Amino acid sequence: MTEAAPSKTRNRTLITGVIGADTHIVGNRILSMALEKAGYQVVALGALTPADEFIKAAVETAADGIMVSSLYGQGELDCRGFRDMCIEAGLDGILLYVGGNLVVGKQDWLDVEARFIGMGFDRAFPPGIKTGQVLEALDKDFTSGPEAVEGAVI
Amino acid sequence: MSQPSTALLIDFGSTYTKLRALDLDAAKVIGSGQGPSTIATDITEGLHAALADLETQIGALPEFQFRLASSSAAGGLRMVAVGLVRELTVEAARRAALGAGAKLIGAFAYQLTAADVAEITALNPDILLLAGGTDGGNDQVIRANAAALAAAGLSCPMIIAGNRVAADEVSATFAAAGLNVVVTENVMPEFNSLNIEPARAAIRQEFIDRIVHAKGIDKARGMLDQVLMPTPAAVLEGARLLADGTADTQGLGPLVVIDVGGATTDVHSIADGAPTGGGVVEHGLPEPHAKRTVEGDLGMRHGLAGIIDAVGAEGLAQSAGLERSLFDDVVSAIASDLERLPATEEEQAVDGAIARAAVSLAMTRHAGSTHVVQTVTGPSVIQEGKDLGTVATIIGTGGVFAHGDNSARILGAALADPGEPESLRPAAATLMLDADYLLYAVGLLAEVAPEAALRLGRDNLKTLDAKEARHGFGSAA
């Protein structure tokens, strides 16, 4: 299996799940499979996952990153305070990604992205992106460290 | 064989030393004996008294093929569980300890504070179970907790069932402090996967190897083969055999055993508890097939205040069919004399109401529950814990069922209450009594003579008249 991991940065643990009262699991499952195939240890929490369960799972498994999916337009509400909860739980500097249909209606993606970055996520992804883009971003962020990530988004 | 093969099963309890002499070929009880519990002085005195009592009933004692014992004497197996996240490794460690028949006197999460360590030292457990972190997960907290515990001046054996990455170092930390230490598999090797059997086995082995000696129970060694396990573990093993059967003989299928005691109410379920309804999403830790929960605040005497707190005196008085003032008088009479057995009709009514409340609450807490989450695609049902809705057998054991003649009504309180559809209690079950208090004996025999043990357990269950059972605890006479 080790030869499936092309990069040393991928020997890491990531939490995935769909936040809130959201049952849309398919995209999240595809993402989890792609991450696993790329060599990450994936802890897949599945659909209907409350925010605190992401954080508890990350504490117990000493995860390196949390990948939050939200497909039903309530993401902004569900993700509020997510970074603060991580800091509270001792997960300082953990990598946080969010992606999916994060808001309702037609909104300018740059606005939406800025809002989620403002909430403490390291990256936010719009609908319709490929798993390869996420893997690329992870490689970059794990190689260059969180400082570089913060630099990149500002 | 000229002589039938026989077995002597001993329960060293906190109040009594109880014996059951069994004919294994006929799967019958030959006789019973009882003596006081004399753990404080010399445990063999009570055992001699119980054997003498048995002898007066059945004459000269046969040469027993098996002489096995369980014990809840000297406070039972007092354990502290330590883990990382309360709902994850702490909960897994708690379940391992309870499943091993322990009396859980403390459970601690996250990095232990100085106050936590002082509390654990004051609790002075018989065994400490240390978990924390999935394999490859967090290893800092378990290392820090081990260092703090090793410096605390504890003397109990340490069982390590946490992140395997840290196990060697943690083990060395305790060994350097002169403590006995056992390393076993992680109670949660991967996130949300429960692996409590190795920890359970390690606890049981430690009980046999060290605790039995530490508590002075092994003074009786010459009079028996082995003290195998704490009595609650024997009851759980008995329940497991009754439910699952043996390789050759079918068991009763999924069942629940309820033991209402003076201080606690124990509930054992042998059932997978998977959702019975379609489209249900399961949340939380996976459930063990054989699960034991202990309600430390629900008991007939020492736990009386807990029951009144939980249900309210008004509801209990109503359930007993008594005026509130009369109910209060009876309760204070009971509270001032904890050894008291109900004598008057009122006292029996109050005891019945207390027992029904204890059974109902303990069953509700043991069983899983559902709640509905509204999503954009419609309502979704989320289940936490075991769905015991289709469990077809509920067995009552313990003093409250031996003394009273309203057992069906007491045990019926475990059934699902139509007013609380979210609680996944058995919907309709056959109510049975372990009338001869044999379940512990069945559990002790389960390993050495499973077929005979299963027959004995089944044949001695007394089926109660279901018509007397009512749903919920609130039904007055």
Describe the structure.
With 154 residues, chain A is an alpha/beta fold. Chain A has a single domain, classed as Cobalamin-binding domain (Rossmann fold, 3-Layer(aba) Sandwich), CATH 3.40.50. Chain A has 6 helices and 5 strands. Chain A has a 5-stranded parallel beta sheet with strand order 2-1-3-4-5, with helices on both faces. Chain A is globular. The N terminus and C terminus of chain A are likely disordered. Chain B is an alpha/beta fold and 477 residues long. Chain B folds into 3 domains: 78 residues, Nucleotidyltransferase, domain 5, CATH 3.30.420.40; 134 residues, Rossmann fold (3-Layer(aba) Sandwich); 234 residues. Chain B has 15 helices and 19 strands. Chain B has a 6-stranded mixed beta sheet with strand order 14-12-11-17-18-19, sandwiched between helices. The longest helix of chain B has 22 residues. The model of chain B has no long low-confidence stretch (mean pLDDT 92). At the A-B interface, helix 2 of A face helix 2 and strand 15 of B.
How would you sum up this structure in a few lines?
The complex is a heterodimer of chains A (154) and B (477). Chain A has helices spanning 26-37, 51-61, 75-78, 82-88, 109-118, 131-153, and strands at 13-18, 41-44, 65-70, 95-100, 123-125.
The helix-and-strand class of chain A reads alpha/beta
Based on helices, strands and strand pairing, what is the structural class of chain B? Answer: alpha/beta
CATH topology of chain A: Rossmann fold
Task: Indicate the low-confidence ranges of chain B by residue numbers.
Answer: none
Distance between the termini of chain B: 53 Å
Average pLDDT level of chain B: 92
Spatial arrangement of strands, main beta sheet of chain A: 2-1-3-4-5
Average pLDDT over all residues of chain A = 87
What share of residues of chain A is helical?
40-55%
